[in-house]
């Protein structure tokens, strides 16, 4: 399972890089959780949660980013910012990339600004 997740996250990073984002970190671990991707979009910092579902029968990937998960992502982002002071004053957003279908060639639905830190 972890291998498939890593492959889907790498494919998502390539997809976002193709749209002009630049990868800073992947699987950035913090005490509170893990940030799948940390990217730069112009002058802004983007924390990306990648959610893979083979199908959307039980809801899409974005639906699985519930309030608890959002809080953990916000805490992990705070940890990342504390560890990388050069980004402390940088505008940030939280995106979700839904990946579905064949894990070797997933389809992506990129939800920019999927939630705000004060929503978590």
From TrEMBL:
PANTHER family reported in the protein's UniProt record: UPF0102 PROTEIN YRAN
Pfam family, one: UPF0102
SUPFAM superfamilies for the chain: Restriction endonuclease-like (SSF52980)
Family the entry assigns: Belongs to the UPF0102 family.
Membrane-spanning residues: none
Protein name according to UniProt: UPF0102 protein QF205_04575
């Amino acid at each position: 399972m972890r291998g498939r997740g890593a492959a889907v996250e790498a494919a998502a990073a390539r997809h976002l890089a193709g749209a002009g984002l630049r990868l800073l970190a992947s699987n950035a671990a913090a005490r509170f959780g893990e940030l799948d991707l940390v990217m730069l979009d112009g002058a802004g910092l983007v924390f990306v949660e990648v959610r893979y579902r083979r199908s959307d029968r039980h809801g899409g990937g974005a639906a699985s980013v519930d309030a608890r998960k959002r809080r953990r992502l916000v805490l992990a982002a705070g940890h990342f910012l504390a560890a990388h002071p050069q980004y402390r004053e940088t505008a940030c957003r939280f995106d979700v990339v839904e990946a579905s279908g064949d894990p070797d060639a997933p389809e992506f639905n990129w939800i920019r600004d999927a939630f705000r830190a004060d929503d978590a």
